[in-house]
Amino acid sequence: SYWVHPGERFDFLLEATARRGKYMIRGVAEDAINPIPAEAVLHYLGARPDVDINSERSQCNETEPCTVLNCPFQFYRNNPKLRCLAIEELVSDVSNVIPEYQESHFQEFFLNFAIPGAETYPATVNNVQFLQPTVSALSQPNEIVKPCSKSGCKGNETCTCTNILDVIHNNTVQFVFMNMGKRQTSHTISMHGHSFYVLKMGFANYNETTGEYISQNEDIKCEGNATEDEAFCNKPSWTNPEWRNGNVSGLNLVDPPQKDTVVVPYGGYVVLRIKADNPGFWMIKSNSLPESLNGMAVLMNESFSYLPDVPKNFPTCRNFEGIDPDVLWTTPEPVTTTPIPTTTEPPTCVTSGDCHRHTWNNDNCLHKWECINGICHCNSST
Furthest-apart CA pair in the chain: how many Å? Predict the structure, then answer.
């Protein structure tokens, strides 16, 4: 079975080799209080319509546990009948060239997708709440009002600004998506403009008997001496300095899976790589709508100098912050209209069309109104 998180999808091939019949496709929306089932029927062509559905849910046991792909943790507590399979354990059956480390052509970004701090804070990336640009960043980059380079954000404080990562053309770019902080929940993160290679996943430390959370993964070092609940971890690094420059232990550089969305487990991290060969501004963000709208996003500025010039007379788009609306808008003059006269007597007319522009109390003509001798008449012969 699959664990499908918000904003995530799986494409798969089904080998239709089973006996012709009808088979259940079962799902459930995980909710500790009220799980919601989702069901469908896979119907083989040629199967008899009067035959009952002939499939049962797999019976899991400790000898042959059922496999669950994409768990946000390493194992189910107190349930040896289920085995978690992480995305990093998958291998690609397609031959790909994995971007390699090249000196002077390698960038690494640590991005902490979290809601950190001892109190409630906005959804952030490296403790920056993303501020949407008020212009088209692609065609009007110089008009971005509040880029983080000018915000002065530092230390254990939350900033609100347009967070932009500058990526150099044709570099190998390694991302370390992290989830460090107090709020114990996983995050589904997507990257626009690329399918990335998932090279490694690191999980938090759990009690192997009870499954209870102990501490965040120790491969990542957060700056400062704050406790885990208070740390913002906005300037992380590898605990082992030998892991720098793409030399992280345990990377799959042979046949890693390729995705555009990945789940970052609470207290853990995911190592990804791309080749910076797609110029543009690309969003990296949470696929949870409340988190995304609240600022858990960052803008990747990739190979900007390789973008084509903005076409001449290309439309510009701005907002109205700081502009007097009276300068932009004028109140239109009221439109005066002549009211339709109402009378109890048929009105005078010049043409038959005049009769249809009036109403009167005895307007019960079921035929065509005509203007005869200057008076509207109901022509009952039509």
Answer: 105
Contacts of 210 (CB under 8 A, 6+ apart): 77, 78
Burial 7-38 (b: 16+ CB within 10 A, else e): bbeeeeeeeeeeeebbbeeeeeeeeeeeeeee
How far is Cα of residue 222 from the mean position of the Cα atoms in its chain?
27
What's the pTM value of the predicted model, to 2 decimals?
0.78
Residue 227 pLDDT > 80, yes or no? no
Lowest mean pLDDT among 78-82, 114-118, 243-247, 297-301: 114-118
pLDDT digits (tens, 9 = 90+) for 240-272: 999 999 999 999 999 999 999 999 999 999 999
Place of tokens 């793409």: 246
Instruction: Select from 213, 217, 225, 218 the least CA-distant residue to 264.
Output: 217
Continuous segment of H or E residues that includes residue 113: strand 106-114
Residue ranges of the domains in the chain? 22-89, 106-306, 342-379
Of 299 and 214, more confident: 299
CATH 2.60.40.420 fits 106-306, yes or no: yes
Pick from 303, 179, 165, 172: nearest CA to 246: 172
DSSP bridge pairs for 370:
377
Question: Is the distance from CB of 158 to CB of 117 less than 8 angstroms?
Answer: yes
